[in-house]
């Protein structure tokens, strides 16, 4: 630590851009606005709903324009979430409850600053500068005075590159998984929602599936607009939903199995209730999200899980529930609630089980790859989180970390 020194963060900044007094007027379409709710876990969460009219951008962005590489930090609700801008997000407008920081060339490396602000020690320092009672936040004046400990610039760059390489791989896996799932969803929609192969046959178009698959689809649509021979039924004919199980946090034992709430993963437990593959959706609190689980899991009582797939499969049920307007089935109580009996009565088109099986067999390898990418990303994130405090304190040498990162990557 002999080479490290402590400075106020403003000494290392070339620019601090702050638009916190008010929000820009919203537009239905236009340039995305970065607010505190889209800065999370080291990145900008997209898509961004809030927009600003393109012709208003220059009128709004008068205090400075963000550059690629700049660091965004939330100042309240919550404080201390960080992300680094790239070429795309640097063109977005800046909104409330965020500041944009740019390190001085040769003094404070932006990538290093991102990971420094994410480190547990620096988060504690930031928290000590919070003010306010209703909503705790950090003022620009206080933020400028926050102390940071930094090594020589060349070491900052090395630390930033090592941690960024881990983050980049995690982000690459995330995008790959999004692409793989989008491909599977497109195929599901074509086969089971739009009835694309049957429509193509009826219109005399060329086959676009393998002959053995093409032959499984009827030649024409019936008077009701569905493939001939396919039937309407109730969702309960396809699958049976069951309420999840109580598991208070006070009795949970962290372990190998994910706990799934209405909003998604909610920690782990040493035991599971449902064997994989499984599908869940929200029952109470948060409605409309659907989750596919390829490992054994514990669904909480705020969720519904598919106990029996009947004429469906895990993948078919996953996409079918996503296509349904589950929010419209809200029971109407003060807390958003989904009654499984109402869901069971929803009318759906029931395809031949043989086609559902072929869809599942074709798409499952893609989801196994998604699962592998997720497991790899968890390992990378654990490595990053282990290295982060040790690098930021100077506890371990760059050379040792480089060897560790090369082995992981």
Describe this structure in words.
The longest helix has 41 residues, at 153-193. The chain is 37% helix and 21% strand. It starts with a strand and ends with a helix. The model has no long low-confidence stretch (mean pLDDT 93). It is an alpha+beta fold and 409 residues long. Among the domains are: 7-150, DNA methylase specificity domains (Adenine-n6-DNA-methyltransferase TaqI, Chain A, domain 2), CATH 3.90.220; 231-350, DNA methylase specificity domains (Adenine-n6-DNA-methyltransferase TaqI, Chain A, domain 2, Alpha-Beta Complex), CATH 3.90.220. The strands form seven sheets. A four-stranded antiparallel β-sheet has the order 2-10-7-8, covered by helices on one side. Helix 2 packs across helix 5, helix 5 runs parallel beside helix 12 (398-408) and helix 11 (353-393) packs antiparallel against helix 12 (398-408). The chain is elongated and about 75 Å long.
Structure, briefly:
With 409 residues, the protein is an alpha+beta fold.
SSE blueprint:
Blueprint (H helix, E strand, L loop, with lengths): L4 E4 L4 E6 L12 E4 L4 E2 L2 E2 L6 E2 L4 H4 L10 E5 L3 E6 L8 E2 L3 E6 L6 H9 L1 H8 L12 H6 L1 E4 L2 H41 L2 H7 L8 H4 L16 E4 H4 L1 E4 L13 E5 L2 E6 L8 E5 L7 E4 L3 E3 L3 E6 L5 H10 L16 H5 L2 E4 L2 H41 L4 H11 L1
Parallel strand pairs: 3-9, 14-18
Antiparallel strand pairs: 1-11, 2-10, 3-6, 4-5, 7-8, 7-10, 12-20, 13-19, 14-15, 16-17, 16-19
Helix pairs in contact: 2-5, 5-11, 5-12, 11-12
